[in-house]
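>> Question from a student workshop board

For tomorrow's exercise we were told to take the sequence and the ligand below, predict the bound structure, and bring the output to class. My setup keeps failing. Could a helper post the expected result so I can at least see what it should look like? The ligand is S-adenosyl-L-homocysteine.
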Amino acid sequence: MIDTLSMNTAQVKELFASLGEPAFRATQYVGWQLKGVPLSEMTNLPKSLRERLATVVTDTLPRVERKLVSSIDGTVKYLFRLYDAEVIESVFMRYKHGNTLCISCEVGCPMGCRFCASTLGGKVRDLLPSEMLGQIIAAERDSGERISNVVMMGIGEPLDNFDNVCTFLRLVGDPEGLNIGYRHISLSTCGVVPRIYDLAKEAFPITLSISLHASDDEARSSIMPVNRKWNIQALLDACVFYYKTTGRRISFEYTLIAGKNDTEADARALGRLLKDAFRDTGAPLHVNLIRVNEVVETGMRQGTVEGANRFADILCHMGLSATVRRRLGSDVNAACGQLRRSEIRERSQAKEKVEHE
Ligand code: SAH
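>> Workshop helper replied:
Here is what the output should look like for this input. Compare the format with yours to find the bug.
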């Protein structure tokens, strides 16, 4: 079976040609597909063609399994069911500059960051390009609104699913596809260093976000196992290469965890680290500060807003730009992986119940 949503229009045309169908049929099909319309409702395609296609193509579009709407700011958290019944999350946020969707790129995550809910059960599988694209399509169809910005900050590590993520990036920016501008796309990584070099060579003009979260190796390794493989120096060298190759600014994510990495000394150490690494490059340095979302299983505690603001002020005084991320959707469990966790818990409780009956 063929996953046509992971293909570009030219490839779908080739497929249609191999079925003896003209190119305009492929264009019609692709148009429906990008709107999330199922084969059975592609009304301008002949019924015989639709029946034939049903035996050839797979439908990998995520389906809305649950949806939580924030009563505070309208943020929507989607729990999507995939073709194999696995679930992932996406978050729809409304900003002044447009609607943003935070998407997942893997089912679960192998990286093991200690504060993160997504990684608690490990990684189950990669997402297909169509399943990444499909989150955007399904959210647009459900909301009736256009999504203009995409952040790859949901469940999973994008650079651990490199080939599918690159195919997704080519498709999402394709003028014949969803046509979302690369400058409106951010990819966040915990620091899979070799793939940062590979990504630089692909030269998508996206924004790279680095989940740094600490400024010395001992502290970073204690919360992010990936740091034992590629340490801070190796990571920042890759970042400098990325900046020099692409000219795209990099933003650094720093999750503030009480008593772990959130003192004024930590702020000064972070500022020095980034300024040193990027000296002579002229790169603008931006740090996104996030007060950790408390996840029961991780035991990490959140500090105060005042503490976070003080941390940001110190970075600003040192000549960096820093913002404390506003928490959208705080009433809908918006920290990555938490909704998927609760779904898995409910499913296993339901299973136990059935087994006990
Ligand atoms: N794997 C990628 C993208 C997914 S996580 C990465 O690590 O960057 C997106 C961001 O949310 C990362 O910066 C991650 O470190 C952060 N994050 C994960 N769990 C969090 C939590 N409980 N509180 C605050 N930020 C968290």
